[in-house]
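Encode chain A's predicted structure.
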Amino acid sequence: MFTILVVDDEPNVRIPVCRMLSQLTGVDNVLEAGDGEEALKLLDQHEVQLIITDIRMPRMDGLELAGRVKDRFPNSQLYILTGHAEFDYALKAMEHQVAGYLLKPLSKQKLLDVFDAAYAKYRERYHVHQVDTIRSSALLEKRIHDLLHDLPLPKFDENLIPPFEQISLVSFSTRDLQSLGEPSVRYFIRNSAYEAFGKLGVPVVCLEERLITIVLFTARFDRALWEELVNETVLWIQEKLRIPIKTGYGGHSSDIGDIGMMYVRCVVNLGFTELSRRGASERLAPIVRSLIAYIHKEYAGSAQLADFAQTHQVNANYLSNLFHQETGMTYSQYLTHHRLMQAKRLLRESNLKIYEVCEQAGYRDPAYFSRIFKMAEGMSPNDYRLCASLSQH
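Encoded structure for chain A:
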């Protein structure tokens, strides 16, 4: 939308100029003000692309207005409107980097020339902004996708992360954990999710063949609106795909480093780990079944993917990608999940101290173990043990 503001204390000058500008093709809105102070109030309320202002006006003149515009509204192009006798005065306006000056009386052709020049700069700036926005959005999606799958965020890309007080995460998949449809359908769902969750904060939508994950950055979290949007999303995805959809909640956190663990909660809640446990399932490649058995046996030790790959003479990158493709989790995420499952079993069934549970579950740092346990379960290991004990009585 292209908006013009005309500032002049003389109505017999201001009104005809506004009338001429409003007739130009491409002009969406023409505002008018009688002095600089009135103009600033309008600039606070409207996004203005072109300002045409007189110099000599009461309360705040055009030069002071030009200085304010330069500091507060740098994307607005400002032209000084002056008489021949004020020519030297008008030159001082160049110190405020005004776009140019116009001599009274104004012709329609001169106004058209000014508008054409301003509109061309506006379109160029808009195009550059759109390209930058698209590139930044795509890179942000890539970085969030990497965080979901345990890849670190590069230091030089940290500025991509939107300001936030809380991060919320939810994933959607079909009941049978199969494909969410053709790429065109998934992209329709992606765009709709951006529109819906944009009401609550800054969403990032990550698409995979069997999963759509929404990571929401919020300054002030509204739980009721969040739950309403999640439920509405399930309904319109089901309507679009005409198949049942289920939801996996990843929880909430104020630490971006928790995104990977939140994603694990999502895929666990959706049932991807149950699929991984079907050792005899023909859906899993034999090498993946062997790798899962290796995790179940060696989880308390190092359980390194590279060691398994070397023993079985398989390329580690290929094996990692295959595991992720078939289970919906990265190798490290599945290993973490299994270790936490064993830790929960030990907390329920033994009187081991927390640091002993930590060691037997494959962790060497009790503080780190407690943090990821709380992130995954929503409570500390001690609280989990207490709840488990109470539920047995």
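Strands lie at 3-7, 29-33, 50-54, 77-82, 100-103, 166-174, 202-207, 212-218, 245-253.
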